[in-house]
């Protein structure tokens, strides 16, 4: 009788620590700290003092923001959607003046 091959379970973590979250979004750990302090991303304090971040909730929270390039091509700022139009207009005005 042939044995069935068992499917390998690949479980991705539901929560990440600061370093892993920073790597996921390609930002510094200081940026993650700032986002937490400004309540941009939700966090969870657990016993022992560790702070965990829900991947799904952080993805959803950061999905509300857009990255807008300002001045230099490599400089980007995350801003709420309401200010994107204003920032874009200001950037276009600066470019036209040059």
Attribute tags:
2 domains; two-stranded antiparallel sheet; alpha+beta; 98 residues; 5 strands; three-stranded antiparallel sheet; single chain; 43% helix
Order of helices and strands: EHHEEHEEH
| Average predicted confidence as pLDDT | 75
Number of self-contained structural domains:
2
Q: How far apart, in Å, are the first and last alpha carbons?
A: 78 Å
Number of strands: 5
Structural class by secondary-structure content? alpha+beta
Strand order in the largest sheet: 1-3-2
- Report the β-strand fraction as a percent range: 15-25%
| Spans of at least 5 consecutive residues with low confidence | 87-98
Helicity level: 40-55%
Shape: elongated
Largest sheet: 3 strands, antiparallel
Q: Any idea what the radius of gyration is?
A: 20 Å
Count of discrete alpha- or pi-helical segments spanning 4 or more residues: 4
Describe what you observe in this structure.
The protein has 98 residues and is α+β, with helices and mostly antiparallel strands. It folds into 2 domains: 13-64; 65-98, no CATH class. 43% of the residues lie in helices and 16% in strands. A hairpin with a 5-residue loop joins strand 2 and strand 3 (51-54). Mean pLDDT is 75; it is low at 87-98.
SSE diagram, text form:
Layout: E1 15-16, H1 18-25, H2 29-37, E2 44-45, E3 51-54, H3 55-62, E4 66-69, E5 76-79, H4 81-97
Helix pairs in contact: 1-2
Give a brief rundown of this model.
With about 100 residues, the chain is of the alpha+beta class. It has 4 helices and 5 strands.
